[in-house]
């Protein structure tokens, strides 16, 4: 079995097709979008309706206390469908973040959630970490 170093968890993990997408996307966020590794976490446990689930990646605020973004990954051969968005929205019922991202490594979708009013808007690009924090003010 081939393994790869997960820079966020600081351990070697099995290189599955989904893990390939995760590692490339995390490196993209760090190198291209300015996301600090210290404010990102992979495989974050959440409890939803009494069941334990795991968010693929969660990005936190500058103080590291408040989640700001959830990212869900799929293998490259998995189509991004409404069902995938329902999955990440269920996680958001617990974490209440402002940004939801779904990627299969080939296509990426990002939406900004208005939790107070219950709306959302799809964005043309993944925000930089600075933009993510600016929207918090």
Structure, described:
The relative contact order is 0.15. The chain is an alpha+beta fold. The protein has one domain: tt1808, chain A (Alpha-Beta Complex), CATH 3.90.1570. The model has no long low-confidence stretch (mean pLDDT 92). The chain has a six-stranded mixed beta sheet, sandwiched between helices. Strands 1-2 form a two-stranded antiparallel ribbon. The protein starts with a strand and ends with a helix. The chain has helices spanning 17-33, 82-95, 129-134, and strands at 3-6, 11-14, 40-48, 51-60, 67-73, 99-103, 108-114, 119-123. The protein contains three helices and eight strands, in the order ββαβββαβββα. The chain is 27% helix and 37% strand.
Give the key terms:
single chain; 137 residues; alpha+beta; tt1808, chain A; six-stranded mixed sheet; 3 helices; globular
Distance between the terminal alpha carbons, to the nearest Å?
45 Å
The assigned structural class equals alpha+beta
Please state how the strands of the largest beta sheet are arranged side by side: 3-4-5-6-7-8
The succession of helices and strands, N to C, reads EEHEEEHEEEH
The total count of helices amounts to: 3
The level-1 CATH class: Alpha Beta
The dominant shape is globular
Give a nutshell description of this structure.
The chain has 137 residues and is of the alpha+beta class.
């Amino acid at each position: 079995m081939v393994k790869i170093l997960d820079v966020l968890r600081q351990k070697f993990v099995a290189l599955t097709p989904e893990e390939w997408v995760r590692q490339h996307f995390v490196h993209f966020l760090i190198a291209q979008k300015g996301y600090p590794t210290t404010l990102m976490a992979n495989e974050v446990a959440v409890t939803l309706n009494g069941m334990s689930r795991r968010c693929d990646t969660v990005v936190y605020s500058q103080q590291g206390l408040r989640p700001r973004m959830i990212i869900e990954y799929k293998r490259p051969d998995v189509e991004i469908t409404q069902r995938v968005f329902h999955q990440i929205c269920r996680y958001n019922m617990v974490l209440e973040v402002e940004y939801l991202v779904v990627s299969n490594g080939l296509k990426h979708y990002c939406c900004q959630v208005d939790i107070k009013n219950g709306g959302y808007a799809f964005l043309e690009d993944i925000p930089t970490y600075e933009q993510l924090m600016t929207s918090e003010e």
